[in-house]
Amino acid sequence: MNPNEDTEWNDILRAKGILPPKEGPTEDDLFEEWDQAVREANEKHLSDKELSELDELEDEEDDRVLQQYR
Predict the structure, then answer these.
(1) Mean pLDDT computed over every residue of the chain
(2) I need a surface site. Which of 3, 54, 55, 67 has the fewest CB within 10 A?
């Protein structure tokens, strides 16, 4: 019996206090997953762009960074 398995039996044992509570994903794990998903979406989005569109996006990003700096 593996206490780390996600089974109905282990859920019952956890509810009765026989097994310790199952550890969920940490905040860092969730952030990394979200960050990876955003990165993949941006890469896919950027791969469909023409060079002039990429230059325009880069200029917009530069403007945003400068606005935040001010």
Answers:
(1) 83
(2) 67
